[in-house]
Amino acid sequence: MARPQQDPQIRINEILDAAETLFYDHGYHQTMISDIVKKIGAAQGTFYYYFSSKEGIVEALINRHLTNFLSEIDAVTCSADISVPHKIEVMAKIMLDTIQYKQGLLLEFLYNDQYLHLMDKLFRQAKKLLTPYLLTIIEEGKRNRIFVVPYPKAASNAILAIIQCYVEALYEKESTEALQDQRVLAKRLIENSLGMPEGSLHIAMWSA
Questions:
Q1: Whole-angstrom Cα distance, residue 109 to residue 106?
Q2: What are the angstrom distances between the C-alpha of 66 and each of 56, 74, 75, 126, 175?
């Protein structure tokens, strides 16, 4: 009697989980494909059946984190029970929870000159995927006369750029003092981009 075939997604998730753990524990460069298949007890051909390279693994990890992240953002954006300003605050909180990962920072093992193109891909994809949600919230705020935003797309781009600058400061391991200054400035700039008085938003910006 033939054995039932395993769902391919189960094996893919096993590979991704094993690879991510090894990348955080030993570093991306130091982790070999042989280490990954050994950890899941599979043959090396199993890896190449699903992925062409280690970089393919990273791209899959980026997509998996972004998918989980966007499902939360979507729920907030569509909610009728969350006020518009609070949607901005909750969105910032979700970003915080996503970036602060495994007692460190998400995909921190890639943050060096050799692999910055992969981190850049993460930032660019996140911005592209986040923009429609942020625009929806901004337009809702305009309709309800909570936000004063003549140019919503420009405001959205500005807010995402502000957040990216802060995230990059975290990855750069800037001093606690410098991060505090940037937190204060980021919050004010976001309020300004939305045409809100200073102190209107209660955004728990990231700490080191």
A1: 8
A2: 15, 12, 14, 7, 28
Question: Distance (Å, rounded) from C-alpha 155 to C-alpha 45?
Answer: 48
Range list of H helices, the chain: 8-26, 33-40, 44-50, 54-78, 84-99, 116-143, 152-171, 176-193
Of the candidates 167, 162, 136, 132, the one whose C-alpha atom is nearest the C-alpha of residue 149 is 136
Question: Three-state DSSP class for 190?
Answer: helix
Each residue's pLDDT expressed in tens, for the chain with a length of 208 residues = 344 456 788 999 999 999 999 999 999 999 999 999 999 999 999 999 999 999 999 999 999 999 999 999 999 999 999 999 999 999 988 988 888 887 789 999 988 888 888 888 888 999 999 999 999 999 999 999 999 999 999 999 999 999 989 888 999 999 999 999 988 999 999 999 999 999 999 877 655 4
Helix or strand run (H / E) with residue 105: strand 104-105
- Classify burial at 92, counting beta carbons within 10 Å of its beta carbon; exposed 0-12, middle 13-18, buried 19 or more: buried
